[in-house]
Hints:
By secondary structure, this protein is of the alpha+beta class.
Amino acid sequence: xxxxxxxxxxxxxxxxxxxxxxxxxxxxxxxxxxxxxxxxxxxxxxxxxxxxxxxxxxxxxxxxxxxxxxxxxxxxxxxxxxxxxxxxxxxxxxxxxxxxxxxxxxxxxxxxxxxxxxxxxxxxxxxxxxxxxxxxxxxxxxxxxxxxxxxxxxxxxxxxxxxxxxxxxxxxxxxxxxxxxxxxxxxxxxxxxxxxxxxxxxxxxxxxxxxxxxxxxxxxxxxxxxxxxxxxxxxxxxxxxxxxxxxxxxxxxxxxxxxxxxxxxxxxxxxxxxxxxxxxxxxxxxxxxxxxxxxxxxxxxxxxxxxxxxxxxxxxxxxxxxxxxxxxxxxxxxxxxxxxxxxxxxxxxxxxxxxxxxxxxxxxxxxxxxxxxxxxxxxxxxxxxxxxxxxxxxxxxxxxxxxxxxxxxxxxxxxxxxxxxxxxxxxxxx
Length: 430
């Protein structure tokens, strides 16, 4: 499917604030929030013939849950966090409405908005023309500072803030860059073509002008987990298969138990039912020390065979780990400090998470060392039970931490799918 320009009426259409759709990205004498409202008020609700399911490189934008969570993990990522700079609730809602409309257009392989005047900036940056939808998914999240910041209820949402939505605690060994962590809003754009993912964030950032500013972003490549049984388990930059025991889209019972927020989980935040929580952590891998470690040490640190991904207790990749099995010296074949042992559900009260991480490589540092690692993303039903205890244990017990540095961090509430709503998270503002 080629990425085609939209066929919306060429004449300016007045929105609820009386500003033409052209003002959204043309910036001609109007703030983005006002232009955003005009954009939504003057466009069709969706491009024609939107398929309801995944087909031909296209993932349906609307549904019970946001796409980009249990969707089969694509190969490329552009993740971005934003700070909201307006104090107007109406302008925030206008931005979310414009973002939703633009996201739906881009995920169906179309350009953003209609064609502007020849003498005005184009509504779409054009860098993804002819590339198709490329399985693009765009997932939105709300950070804790969107609800309250510096003790201030910014948009009248404080009473509806989920109890579990707060800044993640400082874990042992964290070396976080505060300027490149957290954020009022986040967007995860995943696609099979890197330019399609970058195009999505670029255009959504452009739409946000005057209402929200880009705080930080991260490019990722080479998925490090599988979210479907149809996908093979990928490898991370340490050379080991990653995410073998990940939650899969084909097991709805486990997804309801560990991934999706359920009715009654948090009465004050009933708007989040059907959604999830997104944890993002940039984890630098100390590549050079790892590459100098023996294969025996590497496998002991991970707890799995490097080639096949099988646990050191034997069997195939997906065999149950036998933590009681010992070797000749009476020591467990799977070391108790191995990553597999520390992170295993049996050692974490049975909780699981859906991982959607990516490799990243950002060149090299001043000493010539490779600046690379894992951009860890996971989705959980409740970070207080499904992420924080596990990360606390790994930070203090996991032998792998010797080769890792956590540099960026953030937590966001991910609203349920848009379905027939006008914008993502609409129930929060109702």
